[in-house]
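Readers of this paper often ask what the protein records in our data store actually look like. Such a record has a labelled line for the sequence and another for the backbone structure tokens. Nothing more is needed to write down the fold, since each code stands for a local backbone conformation. The record that follows is passed on verbatim for readers who wish to inspect the format.
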Amino acid sequence: MYPTDVEKANAFIWESEPLMAFIGYKLVEVSQGRACAEFGHSRNVQRVGGVLHGGVIAAALDETLGMAVLTVNDGVDQVTVELKINFLEPGREGPYKVCGQIVRRGGRLVVAEGEVRDASGRLVAKALGTWYILRREVK
């Protein structure tokens, strides 16, 4: 089951994952098999030279693709198994939009793809990842 209230989902993310609040990450869309978010080009997301930091791109893709996976998760939790990212263009102008969607849902593994685009629609990064569905809580 996935959150139908994006604002409640954002409040939960910001509370439980302070990194997302720090970079200004905000979900803007969640539907069956898909999620999109945005974040700005603040000092908190830049590397030397004023361009978007690759680690921020990775975190935003992991969060957003993970949210898309959550919409098809019938277990109790999930973990990222693998996330491959191609960094295609330097991010120089926000807000950035990151979207992810399910490619395939198997029994325990879910494959998702996503991308980050800048304010002018340029493709900054493309990702493909795999998530493992947990059937019981890990303690």
The longest helix spans residues 54-70.
